Amino acid sequence: MTMSDNHKMWADLGMDVETHDLLCEALPQAFGDVFLTQENRPKGMDYYNMVVGDIHGIRPAELIQAQKNGQKVVGTFCIHVPDEVVLGSGAIATGLCSGSQFWVPGGERVLPTATCPLIKASLGARFDKTCPFFRICDLFVGETTCDGKKKAWEILATDAPMYIMDIPQMKRPEDFDKWEKEIKNYMVKLEELTGNKITEESLHEAIVTLNNKRKALKRLNEFRKLDNIPISGRDVLLITQIAFYDDPKRFTQMTNALCDELDKRKEENVSVFEAGTKRILLTGTPLSIPNWKLHQIVETSGGAVVCEEMCTGIRYSEHLVDEEATDMDGMIKNLTHRYLGNINCACFTPNDARIDDIIRLAKEYRADGVIDVNLKFCNIYDTEGYFVEKALEEAGIPCIGIETDYTDEDAEQLKTRIGAFIEMLGK
Ligand code: BJ8
């Protein structure tokens, strides 16, 4: 696609093309600074570079083509919302969480300033008409996780077709029953939207397809446990972010091809980091594309990000859906278990399993230290930080808590704090 093809597509989508051009101008610079400055990147990163290089061109054009062929596109904002149901109905799922400051002022026009940047950017992207994904979707699926999102969906619904899944806030047996009912309702909604029946075959195929995507991501993450880490944390973050909206089968194939290359690097003990680099685990709120700030700071301050206990990290890929069942009831039960039981969002009370996971992952990935990351105004993760930091202290794992947003205003201060933290780990 040429730039002018893209412009025509964006104009046809009703976008504010002129304002959007400003974003298109800024992104290559940001991407170049964070990614292309790295030495000895795996060759397999070329695919992801290409995807990001034309992030608002290639995939949107594919989605529009699919719509012309009668498929629907469904946008989601949370990893509790099961993509299998979307895929099983013959529709396409795409992640919508936004990670750029570019969209925040637009969100602030309709939301309180004291709202987390992820929510503000998501609404800004829609209301400013500056993101093709937010124009293309036939349905936007929200959830009742945090208060900020819950209320923001009401505002988004004034401009976009919304459907809300009511996520329980505890994990008792009755909460699983409730979530099962929610998944069934979601299936009905998608059957209405697409005009297709979700069959046992189509749902099972979707489960396998998305498990294969998770397996590829799990395989990728395994390399980060090595002494000689063959791929940077920045690159793994980028791949994970792309997983949210790329075609799942192509993504799986490309990620496995990259892992084949990393297998060779493993045999040859290739590391992209210098000896003595400190291993850092990040935990906390999601890092949506193009939010690369923390990884960039850590990895230019003597650290390597070896794991993200985040929704844009291990929480997205670690647990598979059990593939055993092929009958409808069995599959829905397995989806319920995976999408409620196995995700530890701070919206749950209690959320001890997340704390246990952080300690387990810090050991598995042999982290020298943990950074507890909070997006500004995210109250639930901020509050849960109390337990995170206490548990890490008890386990003898150094930790710092930081709060940040999508601006670059705190970059210098973060560099100083994170730099001092990493230096302290060396002593
Ligand atoms: S499962 S983390 S993707 S809700 S950062 S919008 S919680 S105020 S994004 Fe999330 Fe699902 Fe949970 Fe994951 Fe609210 Fe906090 Fe903002 Fe958040």
Account of the 3D structure:
With 427 residues, the chain is an alpha/beta fold. It contains 19 helices and 8 strands. A 4-stranded parallel sheet has the order 2-1-3-4, with helices on both faces. Strands 6-5-7-8 form a 4-stranded parallel sheet, sandwiched between helices. Helix 18 (379-395) links the parallel strand 7 (369-375) and strand 8. The longest helix has 23 residues, at 200-222. It is globular and about 60 Å long. The site of Double cubane cluster has 20 residues, from helix 7, helix 9 and helix 18. Residues 78-80, 116, 118-119, 145-146, 148-149, 285-286, 311, 343, 345, 347, 375, 378, 380-381 line the site of Double cubane cluster.
**How much is the radius of gyration in Å?**
21 Å
What is bound: which ligands? Answer: Double cubane cluster
Structural class: alpha/beta
Q: What's the story with the biggest beta sheet?
A: 4 strands, parallel
Strand order of the main beta sheet, please?
Answer: 2-1-3-4
Instruction: Write down the domain tally.
Output: 1
How many helices? The count is: 19
Q: Separation of termini?
A: 52 Å
Mean pLDDT: 97
In percent, how much strand structure appears in the residues? 5-15%
Shape: globular
Order of helices and strands: HHHHEHEHHHEHEHHHHEHEHHHEHEH
- The counted number of beta strands is 8
- Give the proportion of residues in helices: 40-55%
pLDDT < 50 runs, ≥5 residues? none
